[in-house]
Specification:
The protein is α/β, with parallel strands linked by helices and 371 residues long. It has twelve helices and 13 strands.
């Protein structure tokens, strides 16, 4: 693969919220050119979502769920290309994130430090007729990094010309921030980027709503809007030592125990967990090189009006959906893994010390050519 050439790629993401598959078609050079082409989301049905949830932690029928997950991604690729009117033969590469079922880069036993994304890249390549890059995170963890977040270098590629320092907040099941520093004065230089998981995103809220039989998520933040934030419960949640750690750092989906809200009403619990997500973002600001002058929010959490209002109140600067600057806030993570697949094939870093804590810039990904 030649550096600087535009490639047509598909990026695939199955996020920690377990909503479904995001599939993005784009053209990119893996450097600073990104041209979105098409995007779609295919929700998981309730049965598969339950099976996937049963594999979290690396337990349950992992091989069977991995096969079903891979086949569902192959269907997503076929649908995406059909809707875009693009033949598989015109696509250079698929970036296949898979689904994270275990993330433990800080396990006290070095032999147990790992990150695990299920998804069979070879099976996907055979099913689609397109070469695949998968397993994006393992090399970073093996080198001593957190393995997450991996989207910051993609965010930097998108951020040219925007006011800096800029905070890009992705609110999926877990929330993460990419801090993009000022444009470098020297030609060819790269802006500083710092990243980490901030804390919970939608996962605790989703689980709370599901547990109370009120749906899969708090649509628009409507339930939280009718509740009251419980101060002692929120303080107990924020007492977690994670928030005192400097960036970079990362989390597993189920890193936080929701026990402090167990006795609350459905509305008060939703309000308190939503405030927990917002306060977690505020807690990361002292760990950044400078406070962002603006926050762009992507991922499903930007549709939660109650959360967005809480973020604006706490952060004290403009907090707006990433769509306001012309980005597709639903598509960004899927686009990122298409972009990272190109970087992987070029041998370029997917992570740097300030994004994952890896000791040196690190490439990653595993290549699956066509059989």
């Amino acid at each position: 693969m030649t550096e600087g050439a535009l490639r047509t790629v598909v990026g695939l993401m199955s996020g920690t919220s377990m909503d479904g598959i995001d599939a993005a078609l784009l053209r990119t050079d893996g450097l600073d050119r990104v041209e979105p082409v098409a995007f779609l989301t295919i929700p998981y049905d309730d049965g598969f979502r339950a099976a996937l949830r049963g594999c979290l932690g690396g337990v349950g029928p992992v091989p069977a769920v991995e096969r079903a997950l891979t086949d569902a991604h192959a269907d997503a690729v076929r649908r995406l290309l059909a809707e875009a009117g693009v033949a598989a033969a015109a696509v250079d590469l698929i970036g296949f994130h898979g689904h994270t079922i275990l993330h433990a880069p800080d396990h006290p036993d070095p032999g147990q430090r790992r990150t695990w994304q299920i998804g069979d890249g070879a099976r996907l390549a055979a099913a689609t007729g397109i070469a695949v890059v998968d397993d994006f995170r393992s090399a970073d963890v093996a080198a001593g990094g957190q393995g997450a977040p991996l989207v910051p270098l993609f965010h930097r590629a998108l951020a040219h010309g925007l006011p800096r320092p800029l905070g890009i907040l992705n609110v999926g099941g877990v929330a993460n921030v990419s801090w993009i520093g000022p444009e470098p004065a020297e030609a060819g230089g790269e802006a500083e980027v710092v990243a980490c998981d901030t804390g919970p995103g939608n996962a605790l809220i989703d689980d709370w709503v599901l547990r109370h039989g009120l749906g899969r998520f708090d649509a628009g933040g409507a339930l939280a809007a009718t509740g009251r934030v419980d101060g002692p419960a929120l303080a107990a949640l924020l007492a977690h030592p994670y928030f005192d750690r400097p960036a970079p750092k990362s989390l597993d989906r189920d890193a936080f125990d929701p026990a402090p809200v167990a006795g609350l009403s459905p509305a008060d619990g939703a309000a308190t967990l939503t405030a927990f997500t917002a306060d977690s973002v505020l807690r990361v600001v002292p760990h950044l090189p400078a406070p962002p002058v603006r926050w762009l929010v992507c991922g499903g959490g930007r549709h939660n009006a109650t959360l967005m209002a809480m973020l604006a109140d706490r952060l004290g600067v403009p907090v707006v959906p990433a769509d306001r600057v012309g980005w597709d806030g639903d598509a960004l993570e899927a686009q990122a893994f298409g972009y990272l697949a190109v970087r992987s094939r070029l041998g370029l870093p997917l992570s740097v010390p300030s994004t994952t804590g890896v000791p040196a810039p690190t490439c990653g990904g595993r290549f699956h050519p066509l059989p």
